[in-house]
Amino acid sequence: MTMPSTPSTHPVTPVGPAGTAGAPGDDLLRVTEFLDHDSEIVQDFVAKALPGGGAGMTDVERACALYYAVRDGIHYEVYGADLSRDGLRASSTIRRGMGFCVHKSIVYAAAVRSVGIPSRIYYGDVRNHLASPRLEALMGGNVFCFHSLTTVFLEGRWVKATPVFNKMLCTLYKIKPLEFDGRADSMYHPYDEDGRRHMEFLRAHGDFDDVPYDMVVGGIRRAHPRLFESGDRTAAGSLVADATGPGTSDAALRTGAS
Q1: What is the pLDDT of residues 184-204, one digit of tens each?
Q2: Global confidence as pTM
Q3: Which fold has domain 32-255?
């Protein structure tokens, strides 16, 4: 399903009818408060994903390798998530080894910038038809506000990438894992493996050069107040346990990182 287009509050590089655009400036490669790719932990993460620093690889190949490193190397988890300013830094998410779409999109945006690929962060509201009953109760329904993905500039055009659900969670929830080839948009499939409706995009908030923290976290808090347990931390729990039962061990949860 095509996402609606809404003007961003940050300048967006003009994109032509075929998705082409002039090359973005260095501002979309810079280190920011949240895209802290100058940190040792982000650099180590990138080095493990790109042996030899990605020498001899094209930008598309680097972007794809980093996509899978984020998708499957960082466990997707809505529960117990840290939405503080420090908790949303790319380095903090890599250190914890888990986060949900907001966190993982930041990591990917930072990682590709570290190898010279311009990136931005996209936010939109979605309807998720396969959320667990507990998560729906906490969210107040199946509309999730400020779902996040990353846009990357490859071969002269912007491409959407969503390195969010890792393979194990896809298996548990019967969702097709999202692949990425660096050329076609990678977004949530509208149907799951059994043909049930999965996710649809409802509203676009736009692309941003860095995380608009107050807008995103404030928007999530206003839309889903019950999701927060205390302060900037979401309620405790496990998406694995939601899918398989409350007796699921922490070890099983951690298996989802691969």
Answers
A1: 999 877 777 888 778 899 999
A2: 0.86
A3: C8orf32 fold (3.10.620)
